[in-house]
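Input (structure):
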């Protein structure tokens, strides 16, 4: 009685090598994750400047320094961008600040999103964050809905990052 395992061996080796390649890929690049965002003011007049602060963490490989071009979107339209450099130790935390001059924007509610997508990230699903609470813009001199005052802050922090963010 002969036992033949040779035809199965290449499949086992292929699966083992593919898993190793996937693990190597995940470990070869920084893995940037957007962990929080703060927007102020939350209620503003058209023409005011909105400050957006984004909290990020490197969840992957230390790697060399990288430059990417993240952006802030308002209702899907890019309103602020900058060069962002990161790399270094895993679990490094970064803060990136953007300014949006709302001159020329129409009054209304704006859903804001931070987009830090880049090709080399092994887990791109955590490179974006969309706030659920909209920013409210009204015409210069117009009152805010519900008689609310100008100002306020919209803030979201990933629960895993809350302790760090609140320091």
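Output (sequence):
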């Amino acid at each position: 009685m002969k036992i033949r395992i040779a035809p199965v061996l290449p499949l086992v080796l292929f699966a083992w090598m593919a898993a190793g390649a996937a693990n190597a890929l995940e470990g070869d690049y920084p893995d940037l994750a957007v962990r929080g965002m703060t927007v102020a003011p939350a209620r503003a007049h058209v023409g005011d400047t909105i400050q957006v602060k984004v909290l990020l963490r490197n969840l992957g490989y230390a790697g060399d320094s990288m430059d990417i071009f993240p952006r802030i979107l308002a209702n899907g339209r890019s309103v602020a961008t900058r060069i962002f450099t990161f790399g270094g130790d895993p679990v490094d935390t970064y803060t990136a600040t953007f300014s949006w001059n709302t001159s020329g924007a129409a009054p209304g509610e704006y859903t804001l999103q931070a987009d830090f997508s880049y090709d080399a990230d092994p887990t791109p699903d955590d490179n974006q964050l969309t706030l659920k609470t909209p920013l409210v813009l009204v015409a210069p001199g117009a009152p805010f809905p519900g008689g609310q005052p100008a100002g306020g802050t919209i803030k979201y922090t990933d629960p895993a990052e809350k302790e760090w963010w609140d320091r």
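Notes: The chain is about 15% helix and 40% strand. The chain has one domain: 31-162.
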